[in-house]
Amino acid sequence: xxxxxxxxxxxxxxxGKINEMLGRIGQQLAQVADNSEDxxxxxxxxVVDNESLSEDEGSISESGMEQIEPSDNEDVVVSxxxxxxxxxxxxxxxxxxxxxxxxxxxxSEVDGGESDxxxxxxxxxxxxxxxxxxxxxxxxxxxxxxxxxxxxxxxxAGRKIKKKERQNKLDSFLASADDSKSWxxxxxxxxxxxxxxxxxxxxxxxxxxxxxAPHADFDPYEPYVDFFAWDxxxxxxSNAPEPKRxxxxxxxxxxxxxxxxxxxxxxxxxxDDKPKEESNLYDVWADDSSLTERQGLTHIPAPKFKLPGxxxxxNPSGEYILSQEEINAHxxxxxxxxxxxxxxQFMFYRSVPAYEKAxxxxxxxxxxxxxxxxxxxxxxxxxxxxxxxxxxxRKELRPYPKTCYLEYKGHKGPVTSVTTESTGxxxxxGSNDGSVRVWEVETGRCLRVWDIGEPVQQVVWNPLPELPLxxxxxGQDVFILNxxxxxxxxQKKIEKLLCVETPTAPDDSDKNASFISWGPxxxxxxxxxxxxxxxxxxxxxxxxxxxxxxxxYDILSPNLNFIYLLIHTHLIRIGHCxxxxxxxxxxxxxxxxxxxxxRSVLIHQLSKKLTQRIPYKLRGLPVSSAFHPIRxxxxxxxxxxxxxxxxxKQKLIKKLEPGVRExxxxxxxxxxxxxxxxxxxxxxxxxDMDLSSQPYKVxxxxxxxxxxxxxxxxYPLFCSCSDDCTAYVLHGKVYSxxxxxxxxxxxxxxxxxxxxxxxxxxxxxFHPRQPWLFTAGADxxxxxxxx
Length: 787
Fold this sequence. Notes:
It is a single chain. This protein is α+β, with helices and mostly antiparallel strands and 787 residues long. It has 4 domains: 2-209, no CATH class; 289-353, no CATH class; 403-553 and 598-786, Methylamine Dehydrogenase, Chain H; 554-597. Helix content is 19%, strand content 25%. The strands form 10 sheets. The chain has a 5-stranded antiparallel sheet with strand order 12-13-14-16-15. Helix 10 runs antiparallel to helix 11 (578-595). The radius of gyration is 57 Å and the shape is elongated. The protein starts with 6 loop residues before the first helix and ends with a strand.
């Protein structure tokens, strides 16, 4: 246990130690002064005697005791009686451990430590790199520790290096402006002094910044000197055999790879698969050098405004002030040539008025920043007329129908359908009054009239000239009648073709007997096909032997519906017994087998008196159908799309999507590669079968529903008729070159029909040989338009 000493004993011991230390330092300083080659270094060392120590650090009493009072920040070293016998060397080490001469060694200062030369003088080195020794000897101690002190460190003699008074920034700026060598001066924060660089130093720094060697005499491309003598050398430098380790795989590498594999499997090492998302936000008005990565075709550099000059100053010099004559001359200039700013002079800054357009310009600038799309747009002044497609003149596209030449009157109701004979000499028409008439084209004479007794939906003439047959759709019946226009041989052939035996009772094994029946028509002298629903459309095949009929309701017959409801009700009454449930499942499977094939579209063969269903399941309500003019392809249009089927392969080839509200009719180009579709919203779509399932052109021509569309057989013409009492004639030329798109040009709008009960032109057909057009209207009139 240490016993604390009294203050008098402690002061005596400290005074003795200080006197011994001062003696040693004086001897070392004298020895260094004798051996030093530079006489100027003597001024950095001063011998401190007892008098100066007493004057600077404190006073010593007459009895030889030093009057030292510990400061608030110092710790008083308390030792026991046993510590009095310690060696002087230990005491010297305790005092010399701190440059300030304090005895506790923890960095606190003792009064009188400023004048102690407790550090040993370091001899100068002979190395050229240490020619100038640093003044500050604190080593790697941070200078922040001295920011609240009056000194910045200690010199070689152990004295404190006082901080110099720093000039304020304005005085230092003025001094550097007057000094021509100020750019060479740098401030040494470590030694608290300004150092002036020599020319050699600046050259050395410049070469380092340029990436060159520091010394100008250094040659990085000096020629290689081969020091080895290769003359008479028969063996290489080392003739030792290849070591075995170069041919054996490294065991250490295999172990390291195995450790990595195990770390991957156990999940100790994980890869961040997701790359770090960089923010897309950047400063638009930043320097262009920071946006080099974003520069590209769409990069728009931010506008750089010209920095203000003397003329923008509030108190410019007199040479920038305009005279009254110059101001008047500027007023006479055009507004775009006038200068935007006229310099004005104000004596004080507070007398400058506010900018009158500051609010409006800042608001406009905010709008620019908010609404600017930041995309480069090339604006070119183009005449709108040049943007119109270059279409040929209508005179070059003649002939086409444009004038009403003849009217065929005789029907008492709306004429729903009109058709032309293959030679072009006769036409036939059907009306809602239940009559079918045959007309002579050139004279308008009515040759023959049939009274069907029901509203006629459609009439179609056989495409073969040797078979002048007429197919009529009225109600649930389809009539195939002989017009009697051919020769005697043709009439005999037609009578034999239309000969049908009296139908017998239908066989249960016949699938078609339940929904179609062939029979003779004794009233009109032809063939009658009885259907189970109303037939709305009929079309002949190009060979004249096949006929397609369309019924827009694909539902079961009333008998099957009645049986289905009866079985279902009986099953509910008797309960779900096994036998009844078995019969119910068998009947449902039978109904599903019927639904697999569409019963809305039927194909009839006239020569064999056969009827067959198409082996396709339709998606939607069918509207119209058509045969391909060349190949065995069948078109069926529903209300939303047009489906193209291959009759030989029995599969769906293509699905055309017009994208209209409801499809009303279709027509096939004579080449078979193009299709036009009319809709209930007045749009006409042109499809190119070789391009896409989307329409090539969509024409919004009519204001009301389009009822029919038609192609001419030999001329590049097509037409459409609508309930707005108009018929549009258009030029549609299809090129043999597949790289050239079809040419579509509107030609004429044909008017003349009157509206009846909201209906207009119900049907339109071209003449097979002449550029003539027949239109059937709801006003009971058929019109012939010629060129």
